[in-house]
Specification:
Dehydroquinate synthase-like, alpha domain, about 350 residues, 2 domains, three-stranded antiparallel β-sheet, binds nicotinamide-adenine-dinucleotide, alpha/beta, Rossmann fold, 13 helices
Length: about 350
């Protein structure tokens, strides 16, 4: 399948069964000869050799770091840009992210900043990265003070999905991506419960991507409606940090979404029927929605979230399924809705 994204940079998201067409797709865009494949030590043993051999005609370099959110830091970033400099990369050359959202975010930030921006290709290998993080141009690393605090908007030149990579994705990571897929189902009825029930399919991936691309095209630099993509994330990020990243991003989004349902029901006096419809939709994520920490603790952490404004914290609430809305709440107002 193919989906064009009309951001300030125009690019395609393409899917193929394997990496066989990667070089062909890259040559449509790339002018440089050097490619640095950035991957983690779970994904690299599975796919690095295959990607290297698919990239005939390019000079391929590799950088592999330990898997996991803890690697999404300044140290990994500096090592990647260091590798680019040592190997004489110039602007036309390319960084290729082969992995999940962690690889994509840190490799993307390196691509965005090395020589003020070099060519960048996303090869997402996790379900979450396929439907979310590889598209839209948000790149970042975490700081000790919080997630994604150092980053840049930088659209890729190509997003290449090799569907075969899903076959090795651990069950927990599939559920993690389902958390984000359910988020899209809350944002638009085009991701139906029936589609979610069929599990990870190419159709589900592209239905989610259509929603993401549409929102990104309308508000690339996150000044308004792009905030809708943060549905469940404001509380979710706080839970993720409190768990010291032992809970996955998607799991935390589901826990955040559960609280958003409670808050929305209270704020907009939603009917019992609407509430039950939302709860059933959330259950399709397959993740336990209860908060593993006290409300006070989660709210205190939320205040540190980067989405806070001087006068309060921005929450995306739901007037109904498919009807998100941004609401600025003081900590006291949020607490009252959460009680
Ligand atoms: N940039 C954005 O717009 C955006 C959006 C959502 C999330 N994110 C970020 O994405 C990250 C989460 O992404 P993620 O869930 O992909 O995490 P991840 O990159 O840590 O991948 C999850 C795990 O799956 C493994 N893995 C990935 N693909 C695999 C495969 N095909 N086979 C076997 N193992 C595989 C990884 O090694 C890792 O252990 C977070 O840092 C989050 O902040 C960014």
């Amino acid at each position: 399948m193919k989906l064009p994204v009309n951001a300030t940079k125009k690019y395609d998201i393409v899917s193929f069964p394997s990496f066989d067409f990667l070089a062909v797709e890259m040559k449509k865009k790339a002018r440089g000869k050097n490619v640095l494949i950035v991957s983690d030590d779970n994904v690299a043993p599975l796919y690095l050799e295959e990607v290297k051999s698919a990239l005939s005609g390019f000079f391929v370099h590799t950088f592999v770091f330990p898997a996991g959110e803890r690697s999404k830091n300044v140290d990994t970033y500096l090592k990647i840009v260091g590798a680019l400099a040592e190997n004489g990369f110039v602007r036309q050359d390319c960084v290729l992210a082969l992995g999940g959202g962690v690889v994509g975010d840190v490799a993307g930030f390196a691509a965005a900043t090395y020589m003020r921006g070099i060519s960048f290709v996303q090869c997402p290998t996790s379900f979450l990265a396929m439907i979310d993080s590889s598209v839209g141009g948000k790149t970042a690393v975490d700081l000790p003070q919080g997630k994604n605090l150092l980053g840049a908007f930088y659209q890729p030149d190509l997003v290449y999905i090799a569907l075969k990579t899903l076959s090795t994705l651990p069950e927990r990571e599939v559920r993690c991506g389902m958390g984000e897929a359910v988020k899209y189902a809350f944002l638009s009825e085009s991701v139906t419960p029936e589609l979610l029930k069929r599990g990870v399919t190419e159709e589900l991936i592209f239905e989610c991507l259509k929603i993401k691309a549409d929102i990104v095209e309308k508000d690339e630099f996150d000044k308004g409606t792009r905030a809708f993509l943060n549905l469940g994330h404001t509380l979710g990020h706080a839970v993720e940090k409190l768990s010291d990243y032992s809970l996955s991003h998607g799991e935390c989004v589901v826990k955040g979404l559960a609280k958003i349902i409670d808050m929305s029901v209270k704020k907009f006096s939603l009917s019992e029927e609407k509430k039950q419809k939302m709860i059933s939709l959330l259950a399709l994520s397959g993740t336990e929605p209860t908060l593993p920490f006290g409300l006070q603790e989660v709210l205190a952490e939320t205040v540190h979230d980067k989405k806070r404004e001087k006068s309060g914290v921005n929450f995306v609430l739901l007037k109904d399924i498919g009807k998100p809305t941004s609401v600025l709440l003081t900590a006291e107002e949020a607490e009252a809705l959460l009680q």
